[in-house]
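Need a sequence for this fold. Nothing fancy.
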């Protein structure tokens, strides 16, 4: 069995799910509940260099308020001297972009995804 790290005595960190400009996202398991989550790890040094501190703070405050079935829920925010960690709802089906890139969607599936996206955007704007 491969070694797995534990984050702040709360989450067992597993495989990497994705990577962006400012950090990485990992699959994790909440040690007390056993629930699957996604842990978004952001490097503080990088966001300080590009002056995104206020944007990250705004993202956290908005995500704490948002409750919608088509938007991942933010469970917890943790930090160390070098990293910020977001514990997020785990999307079992993966990224919509990857799903669309792998196979051509039929009209019914495309309509379903589009309606979900519009519903989420409308919720946020309201």
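Here you go.
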């Amino acid at each position: 069995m491969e070694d797995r790290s534990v984050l702040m005595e709360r989450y067992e960190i597993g495989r990497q799910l994705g990577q962006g400009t400012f950090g990485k996202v990992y699959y994790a398991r909440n040690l007390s509940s056993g629930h699957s989550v996604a842990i978004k790890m952001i490097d503080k040094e990088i966001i300080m260099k590009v002056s995104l501190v206020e944007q990250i703070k705004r993202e956290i405050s908005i995500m704490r308020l948002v409750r919608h079935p088509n938007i991942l829920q933010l469970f917890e925010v943790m930090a160390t001297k070098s990293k910020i960690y977001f514990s997020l709802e785990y999307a079992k089906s993966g990224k919509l972009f990857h799903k669309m890139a792998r196979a051509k969607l039929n009209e019914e599936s495309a309509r379903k995804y589009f309606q979900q996206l519009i519903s989420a955007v409308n919720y946020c704007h309201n």
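For context: The CA atoms of residues 13 and 126 lie 35 Å apart.
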